[in-house]
From TrEMBL:
Its EC number is 5.1.99.1. It holds the Pfam family Glyoxalase_4. It is an enzyme of class 5 (isomerase). One of its GO terms (molecular function) is methylmalonyl-CoA epimerase activity. Keywords: Isomerase, Metal-binding. Belongs to the methylmalonyl-CoA epimerase family. This is Methylmalonyl-CoA epimerase. It comes from Sphingomonas desiccabilis. It comes from the Bacteria. InterPro entries: Glyas_Bleomycin-R_OHBP_Dase, MeMalonyl-CoA_epimerase, MMCE/EMCE_epimerase, VOC_core. CDD domains: MMCE. Gene3D superfamilies: 2,3-Dihydroxybiphenyl 1,2-Dioxygenase, domain 1.
């Protein structure tokens, strides 16, 4: 059911500080410009690793879904894994059919395609993002 690993989400209280760390690890060219995603309640910065992306996310606004995680993990840390699927609605039905908790309706994510999240307690402790493939495949 799950396809390619698209990105690893890393929560941070400061994208600037984390970006510095990843610039040292991967080089200047790998670290993108941060941008706001108000609909998702996060500020985002992508780091291009050779075989995937690291998605740095910082809380944006009082209702950000990552406030709770950072309260428990003030130094930040690995927040979610994101896998690609060919069809977001078919994937949502599949997870729901397995009795897993899909968190809300699909909405447009940072790559411009629809995403949804599956509750970490139904995924072996890993918050999991499902993303429709930008290439129409997985
Ligand atoms: C950049 C845009 C987009 C993209 O295109 O890539 C993104 O990635 S946005 C990323 C941020 N958005 C989201 O995370 C949306 C989905 N998340 C949620 O709805 C909530 O964060 C949550 C998963 C329901 C957790 O809610 P919260 O209120 O923070 O915590 P709870 O106390 O209710 O948590 C219950 C339980 O789950 C554990 N938990 C929470 N977060 C995680 C996590 N990231 N990884 C693993 N486990 C997590 C939490 O510790 C609780 O466990 P117990 O303490 O054992 O009860
Ligand atoms: Co993500």
């Amino acid at each position: 059911m799950l396809g390619r690993l698209n990105h690893v989400g890393v929560a941070t209280a400061s994208i600037e500080r984390s970006a510095e760390c990843y610039r040292m690890l991967f080089g200047d060219a790998a670290v993108g410009e941060p941008f706001d995603l108000p609909a998702q309640g996060v500020r985002v910065c992508f780091v291009d690793a050779p075989n995937t992306q690291i998605e740095l996310i910082e809380p944006l606004g009082a209702d950000s879904p990552i406030h709770g995680f950072l309260a428990k993990n003030p130094a930040g840390g690995q927040h979610h894994l994101c896998y690609e699927v060919p069809d977001i609605h078919a994937a949502k039905s599949w997870f729901e059919g397995k009795g897993m908790r899909v968190l809300g309706e699909p909405r447009i994510g940072a790559h411009g395609t629809p995403i949804f999240f599956v509750h970490p307690k139904d995924m072996g402790g890993v918050l999991t993002e499902i993303m429709e493939s930008p290439r129409g495949e997985h």
